[in-house]
Write a structure and sequence with these properties.
This protein is α/β, with parallel strands linked by helices. It is built from eight helices and seven strands.
Length: 190
């Protein structure tokens, strides 16, 4: 598994059978430097100091694991980049890792335009740049890319969202404002 933009995520430490797979944590050098100070080193939890926009790290993984089946996970990352950057990352992964799966969370185009109102974003002055209304749009970016999973956050744990969640549930455009999508890259014929 490769956690793109891992930050200080502790998934490896929280998964009980984490030693059955190799985890790669990818983020910018300054983030990985801090991460390495806070988390114990492990032969199964490796770090990569790079931007997701670069391809050297992809080539290194491909060379190190030529027949590896990868799961790429980008949580809280893609919406901060523009569509061309997201498209480039998805295409570069798909070209290099046939058979891989790519999962990321997304905001709708409306939610991206209104990210300055999002509770966890407005305090940081960060902005969402990438919005996704139709998850099938991503399939057009690479010939062997197939949507295999999607769900919307408001559909999960409905009681947690209270009255605002009920309102969002009743209005389809709001209901589909935030979610997670997963894609499978098919094998390329030789």
């Amino acid at each position: 598994m490769v956690s793109i933009g891992c930050g200080l995520d502790s998934r490896f430490q929280r998964v009980s059978n984490h030693n059955q797979a190799t985890f790669y944590e990818l983020d910018l050098p300054e983030v990985i430097n801090l991460r390495e100070k806070l988390f114990p080193a492990s032969a199964k939890d490796l770090t990569i100091k790079s931007s997701m926009l670069e391809t050297d790290w992809m080539d290194m993984l491909r060379q190190k694991h030529p027949h590896g089946r990868f799961l790429f996970l980008a949580e809280g990352v893609m919406m901060y980049f523009n569509e061309e950057q997201v498209k480039s990352v998805i295409q570069n992964l798909a070209q290099r890792f046939p058979g891989c799966e790519i999962y990321f969370d997304f905001a709708s185009k409306w939610a991206a335009r209104n990210s300055d109102k999002h509770e966890s974003v407005k305090r940081t002055k960060a902005r969402f740049h990438f919005g996704l209304n139709d998850p099938h749009t991503i399939e057009q970016w690479f010939p062997k890319l197939k949507l295999i999973e999607r769900f919307y956050f408001i559909s999960e744990e409905k009681k947690r969202w209270g009255l605002p969640g009920l309102i969002m549930w009743l209005i389809p455009a709001l209901h589909k404002s935030f979610g997670i999508v997963g894609y499978k890259v098919g094998e390329i014929s030789k």
